[in-house]
């Protein structure tokens, strides 16, 4: 058994990966041979990830606020607390807060053989972010 007390600093999401203010708390980082990690990610209004993909998929579970997400080629989707989103392996996508709301989600990732959990791409432009969401 291993108890990690509330001692891990919140990390600011770096501008190389995110637009706007994003803060990340490590939730789970199990040692090998496990490859699972989980993070609680807080997005300020308007903040979002860059376009990216996960080699072995990603699940996010929204816990607070109102968010947006989109897979490449699909519509922007509104996500709310209790919604779970599975981004398929290597599916290019982004996720973040709605323009006027915070959004918090738990993100669950699995590393591949090289321990990669994410491959980052270009920022989500204001035009992409502002596209009207699917009804
Ligand atoms: Mn993702």
Provide keyphrases for this structure.
135 residues, 3% helix, six-stranded antiparallel β-sheet, Jelly Rolls, mainly beta, binds manganese (II) ion
CATH superfamily placement? Jelly Rolls
Largest sheet properties: 6 strands, antiparallel
Tell me the distance between the termini.
46 Å
Q: Please identify, by name, the CATH architecture.
A: Sandwich
* CATH first level: Mainly Beta
Helical stretch count? Answer: 1
User: How many β-strands, per DSSP?
Assistant: 13
The assigned structural class equals: mainly beta
Q: Which overall shape is indicated by the principal axes computed on the Cα atoms?
A: globular
Instruction: Report the bound ligands by name, code or SMILES.
Output: manganese (II) ion
H/E series: EEEEEEEEEEEEEH
How much of the sequence lies in strands comes to 35-45%
Low-confidence stretches: none
Question: What does the average pLDDT come to?
Answer: 97
Count of discrete domains? 1
- Strands of the widest sheet, in order across it, are 1-3-4-12-7-10
| CATH topology term | Jelly Rolls
- Cα Rg: 15 Å
Helix content: under 10%
